[in-house]
Amino acid sequence: MGRVKSIIRNIVAGATALAVGSCASTGGPLGISDEQGLALGNQEHPKIVAAFGGEMNDPQLTAYVRRIHDKLIAAGEFPDAPQAPVKITLLDSPVVNAMALPGHVYVTRGLLALANSEAEVAGVIGHEIGHIYERHTAQRVSRTNLAGIGAAAVAILTGDQDTAQMAGQAAQLYLLKFSRTQEYEADMVGVRMLAAAGYDPIGQAEFLDTLGKWSALEGQIAGAERPPEFLSTHPNTPERVRRAAQEAQVQGAGSGAGRERDVYLANIQGMLYGDDPVKQGFIRGRDFIHPTIGIAFTVPAGFELQNSSTAVLARSAQTGAQMQFTGATASESPQQIIDGPLSESLGVNLGASRAMTIGGRTGAVGQAQANTQSGVVDVTAYVVRWQGTMNYIFLWVSPANASRQLQPQITSSVQSLRAVSMQSANTPPATRVDVVTVQRGDTPASIARTMAFDAYKEERFRVMNAIGPNEALRAGDRVKLVR
User: Fold this and answer.
1) What is the per-residue pLDDT across 393-451, written as a single tens digit (0 to 9) for each?
2) In the Cβ-directed half-sphere of 193, how many Cα atoms lie within 13 Å?
3) What are the angstrom distances between the C-alpha of 40 and each of 101, 137, 142, 148, 233?
4) Where are the domains of the chain?
5) Phi/psi at 105 (nearest 5 deg)?
6) Can you tell me the distance from the alpha carbon of 202 to that of 248, in angstroms, rounded to the nearest whole number?
7) Beta-carbon neighbour count of residue 143 at 10 Å?
């Protein structure tokens, strides 16, 4: 949870609708001109950066990514493309994602950690540029007015994507979902840009293939399909991989550069992997601890914690109950927050809330029921006035038939919110990408033992390094570990 001090009205607003003129006289696709699209992209840019952990504070890595981007832009011959320059931003986020807004392309460090060559990264960037050059972003802006982009909303965590999107779920930024046709079009632009820039055009298909395998593995580990962020906005299908590979053959697959693995690995050596435990907090068992902010709390047994840049999430696979924790600055009292903007954002009446003491501090609780596609759920919101105008918000959602049994555990979890110092937090070291040389006798199983994962170490190692399930290692090869 890297950014908690935001204005309450922005946090609890399910979506901030961005008014975009739809006058056909503007001449742009579906009524949006290139100038309007660029203005909107520039307006939304700070929100995207803030929601994804800010820009990377790594001049060398940032410069490397920009060189790839600039090489693609220089090689692309698109006479009808928007004339304004396209800027790239490297985001300090562990999620595997890439995005595009008019005039802006974004890549996360999480995506860089999964890629295995410069050509693969170039393929992703080229795909995003393709969305801009084909004016897909402007078309999506026109149809949806970008409702909800950048919103860090406290929302009902039903697990149902459509319902969660309507409620403004904080952990998901539903960025410009493109149609299948638009995805294919952007893929083709990206592959052709790779070839024009001198990269091996097979790079895009290779990354899509790795991404699909990573998604499947993450789903297996979680016990359910939980695709990385990139796949929520860029559906990865075998058909997309096949088409990208087919176009790469047309463009001369195998004839370009950028697949030199050692060169790429040297550029990401030492890159932060996962959450920054100091900047974003960390999970230890059932505890979430944020040493910089100076808070900690404990979730009930059976709940799995997940950290993000805007919120901390927890879910019980057994009961289906979910929790979201976030923070906001507000001058209103905890009761006023619950009865007013929080109820309004969720679309349920949580009032009249009642005052209570939480961890020795002023707080309030409000409850309501909501109808979702998954059935009736109980919604319980707690607001804790922490210090000054800083408030912390727990939002619990549970199936109606499980709520009574869970209530004592929920109350205990909320009451566990406590202050911690930098010293008492016992912050673990950050995990990083570590590039090593394979020695004689090393196997995927033996070399993966040092990976900083609790389980599925070899499986993660193989996918991250594009090593097949039956493929052996060769002495002298360079591979990436996370430790």
Assistant:
1) 999 999 998 889 999 999 999 999 999 999 999 999 999 999 999 999 999 999 999 99
2) 31
3) 8, 10, 11, 14, 19
4) 15-152+171-270, 282-419, 438-482
5) -125, 140
6) 5
7) 11
Q: Provide φ and ψ at 300, rounded to 5°.
A: -65, 160
In sequence order, the 6+-apart residues with CB closer than 8 A to the CB of 198 are 71, 75, 256, 257, 258
SS3 (DSSP) at 458: helix
Residue type, 48: I
Range 282-419 has CATH code 3.40.1000.10:
yes
Tens of pLDDT, residue by residue over 295-337, are 999 999 999 998 876 789 898 988 989 999 999 888 999 999 9
Task: Compute the distance between CA of residue 376 and CA of residue 356 in angstroms, rounded to an integer.
Answer: 26
- Return phi, psi of residue 444, to 5°: -55, -40
- Extract the tokens encoding 203: 């790079």
- How many CB atoms neighbour CB 265 within 10 A? 18
CB 394 within 8 A of CB 337: no
- Identify the CA nearest to 363 among candidates 398, 329, 338: 338
314 contacts 305 by C-beta, under 8 angstroms: yes
The count of C-alpha atoms lying within 13 angstroms of the C-alpha of 428, restricted to the half-sphere facing its C-beta, is 17
How far is residue 226's CA from residue 57's CA, in Å, rounded to a whole number? Answer: 29
Residue environment code for 175-210, b if the CB has 16+ CB neighbours within 10 A, otherwise e: bbebeeebbbbbbbbbbbbbbbbebbbbbbbbbbbb
Q: How far apart are CA 414 and CA 256, in angstroms?
A: 56
Can you read off the two tokens belonging to residue 160?
A: 């149902």
Tokens of 473: 């290692």
Which pTM was predicted?
0.77
Residue by residue, DSSP assigns 132-166 as HHTTHHHHHHHHHTTTTTT--------S-HHHHHH
- Copy the structure tokens of residue 298: 């404990």
Which position has the token pair 């016990």? Answer: 223
Asked if 387 contacts 417 with a C-beta cutoff of 8 angstroms, the reply is no
- The closest of 65, 427, 434, 106 to 270, measured between CA atoms, is 434
